[in-house]
Design a protein that fits this description.
Helix content is 42%, strand content 13%. With 252 residues, it is of the alpha+beta class. Strand 2 and strand 3 form a beta hairpin.
Amino acid sequence: MTMFESKFFGRDPVKKATCPFCGQLVERPKDLSTRRPGEMPVGACSCGAVYACDETGHNLGSAMIEALVFGSNMDWDLAWGLLPEEDYLAEIVENYDLKSHLIIPGGAYEGRRIAGALYFIRMHKDIQEVTSDGVRKRLKEADDISSVSGPRQEQQRPLTKKQVEDLVREYRIEPILDAARQDKKVIRYIQRLIYSGDTQARNKAAEILGHACAVVAEKDPGVVSKLLQGLFYSLTDTAAYPMGALEAIGQI
């Protein structure tokens, strides 16, 4: 029996975090130096697989996107063009605890409920040849995560108009909602985007505006009420009918 195993003898078994593709030990995920609010810590295995950490286990869809984009060296156009099986393989390692960097099969450890997950993506060799150098460089410049007792609750800086525009274009809803909980001006930034001449972009902005308004309304429904009043009023202005206003009202 190893020292690691004896430490937990008689308790629910725990496991070291390993890559589901090659079985090698993997390092604790890190925060990229370019990390924006709401983005997940990521890591990479020596076999070429990359992974994103969903600390709660409730945002696996976001974790998949995080891992896919990171594995594409943050090239969104490349990431969205990739197909599962044809371009990459995916595996999920459940019951991951970021604090201890262990897998807890029993789902409970040191009095804490463990439900996190590591979402692994391994690109096929032809794609790795293009992206692997950039991925390793980004990870080398990433920041270590200090031990935490649960999902990190950070006081983030308010998003700028440009950041909101980028997040809406990339359809990254969670970071926008996290920001809206702390800064209600976010809904004004999104409102600017519902007037886009591009139908797809306009509909995307309207949908995200609806989600953000729901978050803001929990603390300040008056702000959302004023926004709705302005949108309804704009519909009565026949001289300047605003595209996107009706869609936004429907989403809110």
